[in-house]
Specification:
The protein has 19 helices and no strands. The chain has 468 residues and is mostly helical. The longest helix is centred in the first third of the chain and has 35 residues.
């Protein structure tokens, strides 16, 4: 089940909210939320609920033993076991076939593949489980003595299948006590509706343009079609993922939780380093705090540490060589900026930094979109004029969707928030409150109607990060 579906919007969510807000006690609300979270996950793949529960149990008992033997070698042993066992399920389901295929090709052997489906959201909840046991070992969070509360943290449906990656330290206190206010719920509804519009209208429509231009046979792809197609994909993946993060954060607020921000207008970045401070923030900070710094960070072998982090970042997104190339691609640019280009960009006009960043990111999405090296090569051949500038068919496709591109461009930049702040400064505080109240209500209702119409009227509703 995904948030941008009619079943979720009009059946699952209303039932969940009704069951959640009827009881007053936080313990009962936690149980209600846990039950609905397991139902949400089990809607598509009930068999993998057991895997998530086992992963939670491993880290739950590891946390208890780490606390019991704190300060001894046994504590480190239980931490190591927890990390190995937790990552083993991710390695088995996501990476076994990838590395086995590589070994078969390299050594001319025939090791059988598993051929199993990747459990939904396994990369997200695996990382979240790890933050718990590692932070307990570091003494940054108290050990959780209640299994169902830890399971609620890991399985909580607003952030279960696509993040943001919520650390245990972000919500440990809120699991015990939180306040659900009308104002916070109102903010959550508006945030959810913003994300819903991003997904159902912007991401889906621009995704159709991308699919028609670069989703098929690349032998007839032209220069114009290639660049417009990859631009459309850049908008699609941003509004798809950022929209889902907005919906997750909004739902969290409705239930009384505060989840971390995951995107801050990444296409407004002035450098690649700046881009990664704005894009999928919770993943970047996870690798920084749990991989890069423990390996030595900037203190020793920082270049090797960065290389490892970006190889892992690429592989986290998918078990395929194109994702490895994608990670290495960003590693190269980040190294160049750290050693030389970064300081020069700071002295140049902001517009130059923006153009540079957008070009690098656009080219990077080519490695992300196409899975095979032959497709990547065919795309670049077309992008640099190998198949001509344009065709009548591709121009017709672009004209049919042309209106969505400037809308996406505006919404991907911090234009609307700036206009909102400027508008509110022109009125009194009382008028501001009234305008916000009325405006939020009108927006929420309008967004729901528009999104519903978009879902009913179109069969194209993919979610790109669904299996990460």
């Amino acid at each position: 089940m995904v948030f941008s579906s009619l079943v979720f919007l009009y059946i699952f969510l209303p039932l969940c909210l009704a069951a959640y807000f009827i009881p007053r006690k936080i313990q009962i609300r936690n149980i209600v939320l846990l039950v609905f979270s397991l139902l949400f996950y089990g809607w598509g793949e009930p068999v993998y609920i057991l895997l998530m529960i086992v992963t939670t149990a491993v880290d739950f008992f590891a946390g208890l033993f780490v606390e019991k033997y704190r300060g001894t070698k046994k504590a480190k042993l239980f931490l190591t076991l927890a990390v190995v066992l937790t990552l083993s399920s991710l390695g088995l389901f996501k990476y076994y076939d990838f590395f086995t295929t590589a070994a078969n090709d390299l050594f001319s052997v025939n090791i059988p593949l598993l051929g199993v489906a990747l459990p939904i959201g396994i990369s997200f909840y695996t990382f979240q489980a790890l933050t718990y046991v590692v932070d307990v070992y570091r003494g940054r969070v108290p050990v959780q003595s209640s299994f169902y509360k830890l399971l609620l943290y890991i399985s909580m449906f607003p952030q279960l299948i696509a993040g943001p990656i919520v650390r245990y330290s972000d919500v440990c206190e809120q699991l015990e006590e939180r306040t659900c206010t009308l104002q916070k719920a109102s903010e959550g509804i508006v945030r959810f509706c913003i994300g819903l519009l991003k997904k159902t209208v912007l991401a889906n429509f621009v995704g159709e343009l991308c699919e028609q231009l670069i989703g098929g046979d690349l032998s007839s792809l032209t220069m114009l079609g290639a660049w417009v197609g990859i631009l459309a994909y850049a908008f699609q993946i941003y509004f798809d993922f950022a929209g889902y993060s907005d919906m997750a954060i909004g739902l969290g607020k409705i239930f009384g939780f505060d989840f971390p921000e995951n995107f801050r207008y990444p296409y407004a970045a002035r450098s690649i380093n700046d881009f990664w401070r704005r894009w999928h923030i919770t993943l970047s900070t996870f690798f920084r705090d749990y991989v890069y710094i423990p390996m030595g960070g900037n203190r020793k072998r920082w270049a090797v540490n960065m290389l490892i982090v970006w190889l892992l970042t690429g592989l986290w997104h998918g078990a395929s060589w194109n994702f490895v190339l994608w990670g290495l691609y960003y590693f190269v640019f980040l190294m160049v900026e750290k050693l030389w280009l970064g300081k020069k960009l700071e002295k140049l006009p902001a517009a130059i930094g923006h153009v540079y960043s957008l070009l690098v990111v656009l080219v990077g999405w080519v490695f992300f979109y196409f899975e095979s090296l032959s497709e990547i090569q065919a795309f670049f051949l077309a992008a640099f004029g190998g198949n001509g500038f344009s065709t009548v068919t591709q121009r017709t496709v672009i004209v049919n969707y042309i209106a969505i591109l400037p809308v996406c461009a505006i919404c991907s930049m911090p234009v609307l928030p700036s206009l909102r702040k400027f508008f509110l400064r022109l009125r009194s505080e009382k008028m501001q409150r009234m305008l916000l109240s009325v405006g939020q209500t009108v927006f929420a209702v309008g967004a729901l109607l528009v999104s519903t119409a978009a879902l009913v009227g179109s069969s194209y509703n993919p979610f790109l990060y669904f299996r990460f």
